[in-house]
Amino acid sequence: MHAWHVPRNGEPGEVMRLAEADIPVPGDGQVLLKVRAANVNFPDALLCRGQYQITPQLPFTPGVEICGETPDGRRVIANPALPHGGFAEYALADAAALLPAPDALDDAEAAALHIGYQTGWFGLHRRARLQAGETLLVHAAAGGVGSAAVQLGKAAGARVIGVVGGPDKARTARELGCDLVVDRRADDVVEAVKDATGGRGADVVYDPVGGAAYAQSAKCVAFEGRILVVGFASGTVPTPALNHALVKNYAILGLHWGLYAAKDPRAILDCHRHLTDLAAKGAVKPLVSERVPLAGAAAAVQRVADGLTTGRVVVLPPRTEGAAA
């Protein structure tokens, strides 16, 4: 089979190599999946750089989120078991953690429904307790993680303000359903949010960016608001001023979705049922902006790492007849 390998750490476009490889052999509790579509995530870039929470032994195949096909022909969503990731024709996954791919979504959309949407669901509903009628501020609203939060916020009945960088991403955010779009390159984010909320600020802030975005969040979060710390795509981890949280009465909430697999796996299944229902109703639909062949995976991961994409970029390996054997 063909698979992308990372033999050393560095920028994805420099270290990822497409090579011939043996089809991996499942270990105990694992299943071999034929990859139908592999979604590109920012963690794929961090894995290449050696900066992710886990550091697989070199060489490894990145690709942490796929829609795959089981040996008996079922279409499933899975997080591949590294080092045998999803940017390949076949991948390995934990058999007990497979989720049925929603019938309402094609392979590329199904591959993109998992990590970003589960993160959004747990963040908005379980951690921040977002209520209908509240104002939700989403940073990087046109990106893969942000676009999921926008759709989930609208589905929950919130008023959604999206922060983006540039007119193209602003257009995408409006198409996603944002009630107000703020271009951080042209507008004062804090002033725009306060103007739009009558000075109150945002009840919930969804921040996958960190850095300057977090500083803006602290300035425009409402009384008893909640700031969700989801990631640090900017590359800068903020250091919150806890005295500011105290005098303004807001909460800073962390969200590491991967912990739920170990701490509360049933919650992941429940979340997937909610997401499947929303997809069936058309309330959520992953924004797949690019579908690239397997040969384009390294360039795609680099574009995501550089913040040059909107929505999701999905890698589509060549299709062959039959399921994984």
What does this structure look like?
Residues 13-315 form the Enoyl reductase (ER) domain. It holds the Pfam family ADH_zinc_N. It is built from twelve helices and 15 strands. The protein has 325 residues and is α/β, with parallel strands linked by helices. It folds into two domains: 2-113 and 286-316, Quinone Oxidoreductase, Chain A, domain 1 (Alpha-Beta Complex); 119-259, 3-Layer(aba) Sandwich (Rossmann fold). Strands 3, 4, 5, 6, 7, 14 and 15 form a seven-stranded mixed beta sheet that branches. Strands 10-9-8-11-12-13 form a six-stranded parallel beta sheet, sandwiched between helices. Strands 1-2 form a two-stranded antiparallel ribbon. Helix 2 (42-49) packs across helix 12, helix 4 (115-127) packs across helix 11 and helix 7 packs parallel to helix 8 (212-220). It is globular and about 60 Å long. Residues 321-325 have low confidence and may be disordered.
Concise account of the structure shown:
This protein is an alpha/beta fold. 33% of the residues lie in helices and 24% in strands. The chain has 12 helices and 15 strands.
